[in-house]
Amino acid sequence: MRLILSTALGLMLLPSLADQRPAPARRPSPAPAALNADAKPDGSLAELMRAIMFPNSNIIFDVQTNDPGVEKKLGPVGGGALATFANMYAGWDLVQQAAIALAEAPDLIMKPGRLCSNGRPVPLDREDFPRWAQGLRDVARDILRAARDKNREKVSELTDQLIEACLNCHVQYRNDPPGGPRRCVPKN
Predict the structure, then answer these.
(1) Which one of 19, 84, 106, 179 has the largest count of C-beta atoms within 10 Å of its C-beta?
(2) Mean of pLDDT values over 179-183
């Protein structure tokens, strides 16, 4: 019975399909601005630090005192997305994602046109700044490898190098509160 209905339906549609013309060839659309490497940064260096480096570094530092291998329960449904999904990505997945964010953050830090909170350009032209940004990437990749191996001891050991990677720039360029005139101005 199904075969008869399918055949009948196909025969009824066949004449209308024959009358259709092929669709015109699609032209490729231009690349979205988000993929444009020349696009202007959306936030200051301080905003980028608060959005990416600060929370993700703290997730990694937390491995020293909280075992990511211990399963946590999801938050109760309701109360907004933050409460509901607070533990959706947890454990080693969260540590790995934090390391990925830190490993890719230097690309955003080094984006041409990025400004400090006082409106000064990020010191991309200095020899030390790109080198220290690469240092952040290197230690984050080491942390990622250790997190993928679920090696809590190794991740904990690497937090010293993560602190050092952060302090390299902070000691040299974070000489004033956010927005202060000496922010992003080298100490020496």
Answers:
(1) 106
(2) 86
